[in-house]
Amino acid sequence: MKKILVAFLFLFTISTVFTGCRDEKTPEEKVESAIEDVKDDIEDASDDVKDAAEDLQDEIEEAAEEAGDDN
């Protein structure tokens, strides 16, 4: 009976240690994290627009070359 009680106490202690060590963010840290996420999303969107513009430029150049070849 004593061994079972000790085992339960040990498991309770271990579970308390792991659940009590959560890293909780302050409101300021949450805001900073959200701002960084938005900044990353804007950078990704900017890169996508830049890539699309380069693709469009390539297509325009190809169309110009094809039009020049037809004449």
Automatic annotation (TrEMBL):
Basic and acidic residues: compositionally biased ranges: 25-37
Keyword annotations = Signal
Give the source's domain of life in one word. Bacteria
- On whether Transit peptide is a keyword of this UniProt record, the answer is no
Quick one: where's region Disordered?
Answer: 25-53
Q: Does the keyword Signal apply?
A: yes
N-terminal signal peptide: 1-19
Q: What is this protein called?
A: YtxH domain-containing protein
The organism is Psychroserpens algicola
